[in-house]
Amino acid sequence: PGETLCVVTDGITEAMNGEGELYGTARLETAFRAMGNMAANTGADALLHRLREDVARYVDGAEASDDLTLLVIQRPAMAQ
User: Fold this and answer.
1) C-alpha–C-alpha distance, residues 69 and 80, integer Å
2) pLDDT, tens only, 29-79
3) HSE-up of 23 (CA within 13 Å, CB side)?
4) Which of 3, 4, 1, 23 is closest to 71 using CA atoms?
5) How many domains does the chain have?
6) What does the chain look like in DSSP terms, one character per residue?
7) Contacts of 1 (CB under 8 A, 6+ apart)
8) N or C: which end of the chain has fewer CB within 10 A?
9) Rounded CA separation 9/14 (Å)
10) Within a domain: residue 18?
11) In a domain, 80, yes or no
12) What is the reported pLDDT for 39?
């Protein structure tokens, strides 16, 4: 039902925690899969908030070295 498009800059995958470990593509893919399961019942704002929270929790206050840009667009299902 409908479609969701999530776009991120490399600042998300390159966000580092205090130990210098990257958030990474694998973690982002896991977050997207979890978001995909809830996307049908959740608005774009909630999906954006959830991903922002996951990145913030991962970096745990470490200073960002790049922009962290997220864009979530949803198109509702067409009525039949």
Assistant:
1) 35
2) 998 888 776 666 678 888 888 899 999 999 999 888 888 899 988 888 887
3) 28
4) 4
5) 1
6) --EEEEEE-HHHHT-B-TTS-B-HHHHHHHHHHHHHHHHTTS-HHHHHHHHHHHHHHHHTTPPPSS---EEEEEEPPPP-
7) 40, 76, 77
8) C
9) 9
10) yes
11) no
12) 61
What is the rounded distance in angstroms from the CA atom of residue 35 to the CA atom of residue 69?
A: 17
Other C-beta atoms closer than 10 Å to the C-beta of 3 total 10
The type of residue at 35 is: M
The pTM score is 0.81
Rounded Cα gap, residues 7 and 20, in angstroms: 24
Instruction: Give φ, ψ of 78 to 5 degrees.
Output: -80, 135
Range of the domain at 7: 3-75
Is residue 7 situated within a structural domain? yes
> What is the structure's pLDDT at 40?
62
